[in-house]
């Protein structure tokens, strides 16, 4: 059948004739634009595909990763009540020491696909891919260049700490995704006639980030608010109203769950883990809030030097440098360059990302309380975005000696930092640091003179500089992806699998001996211990109880039955008290007590203000019930059997 085009001739494309495309010569410039667009799209597909491969390949090797959160996901998959509150066990004795939002995707995955390493970890990997896509979209929108977005996305995807956390099940993966989404929403608000809608969405994303990791989500607020206040095109009064509306959306998105928990009768919900008074607001502003800054966290292990030396150079130290510091100097240089020579949208995004980077970096550097190197994943999108954004802005102005000099300086400092960081692990690819130094410093010199080179040769120089800068972190990222990580404090890079590596993995039941775990690593159950705990399990609310959530987690994951984590994560929360535990035992709700749990306990061992309940419970159990050893694990049968 022949179809006839009935449109008026004036409305037809001049290259069309009777429904067929006439092959005509397009202008060379237009052809180049089409070819460039096709290449950008292909590169974007490659970026996301490579990111997916990096974040998903061999993911199951990490087992349950952080078994503290894996146990909560298992509990949430069994009980909607445990799901809502973020309880550590399905019976709902106590919650994790964070809001529950990051647990919900894992719990739903376990409910749909069953309990496994993959069902626990894949949601975080997908969040990582989503974060890379969002950063690409944000930088592309500000610069008008897909290539700038691809550079930013690739830089984020290969950040060692990003690879670590997007292959792990701590809350940080969701936190970073939501912060990146908020940044994207603010950028959209700057250029959209529907600015209010985008600001409301951005505020909601920060509210959800609060439900992921409480006050850390607010570290990006100054940058987001300042960017909209400075660069929005609407009148000042409207800007203020939009910011207030966004604040309201944040309060609603983050506050609804808090309001329900605060109003819910404490006797009919799980104890709020991490607090000393069963109060979520105390947890938010104390242990997870200002206590992190001052080091005075009731019930914690204390702060100060126990979490590393504080100071402006903390992020470049031995513990942190290899995680994220590779491109920090370049990000600052390129960000300042973007402010100097960029368009309005480029300067707006540079302001947002620089504010994000500086405020978060200073907080991490100076906080005296609990701090872990993997927290620095919150810096990765800002660093990567500045590299793509500032690099593009300065490259467009490379005819200027100042712009060319800033590009050369960024390349040279990145090379120097790369060499220094690689030198800290001399046994890891010892040749790489010399290649980085040779190629990087040569590229830095050539970048300065790129304005005198033919376009194709100049692009080759730029690509070489980029590859030299990413070589070190990419090597660390690949090493991180190939290393299983378990425990509570994972680290990226060569030879760093984190505390508790090798413990708490699925399939561990065949081991020769069990282990009760510790404060920072999960327990390991054997076939004999698991079988014992499962005997007559339906007759008990908790098949066992033990001190510390990590000690309870391994047994719970092995049995898929509730195991009570006495004292919560640190073993220092007053939940349950001795009287409450005695009542539960008298009612026949707890079958076994597993001795030797890894919590800090009470009686002064649980940090400032910690409860003595766990010590009292341990003492009472040992004095009241006979002990038995199974595969090296000491258990007490509380049923009297």
Question: Can you characterise this structure?
Answer:
Helix content is 56%, strand content 4%. Residues 1-24, 497-512 and 602-609 have low confidence and may be disordered. It has a domain at 38-65 and 116-481. Helix 6 (146-157) packs antiparallel against helix 16 (380-396) and helix 14 packs across helix 16. The protein has helices spanning 28-56, 67-78, 80-85, 103-113, 117-143, 146-157, 160-165, 172-191, 195-213, 221-231, 236-263, 280-294, 321-324, 328-341, 344-366, 380-396, 401-423, 432-448, 455-481, 527-534, 549-559, 578-586, 613-624; strands spanning 16-17, 20-21, 542-547, 563-566, 590-594, 627-630, 633-637. With 641 residues, it is mainly α. The strands form two sheets. The protein has a five-stranded mixed sheet, with helices on both faces. Strands 1-2 form a two-stranded antiparallel sheet. The protein is elongated and about 85 Å long.
